[in-house]
């Protein structure tokens, strides 16, 4: 689909309404929470499909925050438009995830250096081999430094972006990734990293562990309002 003008089919913002750096949680209510808690003078630029987006300032610097929904088709649409139609340079996903490695604990913050995937998303690029979706090193380095300066523990490593949440063979599926050292599972980073690579832009996925086998999962309200350590690290990258 050829499209070079704004607003788009999914975003009522005009060119210039969105900052060069966008923080993106899956949940649009988490985007609203971040805008109201951390940003000065936030202005809502999108309500289409209730995928809320806001632009304000943080420490005097323009920043936007917008939900991206669940799964690679959803994050693929929103990030493609931000990179290619709205001149966004940096997208930082701040999401929730499930622990895979036994030593990964509830509420641990993971920085996704690479994103394995079982998705067919890369087929759209018609590549002659297997593409390795990776984060932008500059954003990884800055995120680690920001976490250390704030005394917030983080782990950097590989994650898995899956297409299926309810899996008939979940144990077998997870065991394979455990053997390869993958830390956690989520559903969006690989598509974000591919879109960033294709557009020549920067991307990073930071996730907070919201559930783990044998532990009580976090509630929707907890995921919306209590993952502030990850939010503070992301805002430090603006």
TrEMBL record:
One of its GO terms (biological process) is uridine catabolic process. Keywords: Glycosyltransferase, Transferase. It catalyses: uridine + phosphate = alpha-D-ribose 1-phosphate + uracil. One of its GO terms (cellular component) is cytosol. PROSITE patterns: PNP_UDP_1. GO terms for molecular function: purine-nucleoside phosphorylase activity; uridine phosphorylase activity. Coiled coil: none annotated. This is Uridine phosphorylase. The lineage of its organism: Bacteria, Bacillati, Bacillota, Bacilli, Bacillales.
């Amino acid at each position: 689909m050829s499209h070079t003008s704004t607003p788009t089919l999914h975003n009522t913002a005009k060119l210039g309404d969105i900052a060069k750096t966008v923080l993106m949680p899956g949940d649009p209510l988490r985007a609203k929470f971040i805008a109201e808690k951390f940003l000065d003078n936030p202005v809502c630029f999108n309500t289409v499909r209730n995928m809320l987006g806001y632009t304000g300032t943080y420490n005097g610097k323009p920043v936007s925050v917008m939900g991206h929904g669940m799964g690679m088709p959803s994050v693929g649409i929103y990030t493609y438009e931000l990179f290619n139609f709205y001149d966004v340079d940096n997208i930082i996903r701040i999401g929730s995830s499930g622990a895979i490695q036994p030593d990964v604990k509830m509420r641990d913050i993971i920085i996704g250096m690479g994103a394995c995937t079982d998705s067919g998303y890369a087929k759209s690029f018609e590549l002659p081999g297997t593409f390795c979706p990776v984060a932008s090193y500059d954003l990884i380095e800055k995120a680690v430094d920001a976490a250390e300066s704030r005394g917030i523990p983080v782990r950097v490593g590989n994650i898995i972006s899956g297409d299926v949440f309810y899996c008939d063979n979940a144990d077998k599926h997870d065991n394979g990734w455990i053997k390869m050292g993958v830390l956690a599972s989520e559903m969006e980073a690989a598509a974000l990293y591919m879109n960033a690579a294709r557009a020549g832009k920067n991307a990073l996925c930071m996730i907070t562990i919201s559930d783990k086998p044998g532990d009580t999962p976090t509630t929707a309200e907890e995921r919306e309002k209590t993952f502030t350590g990850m939010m503070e690290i992301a805002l430090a990258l603006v």
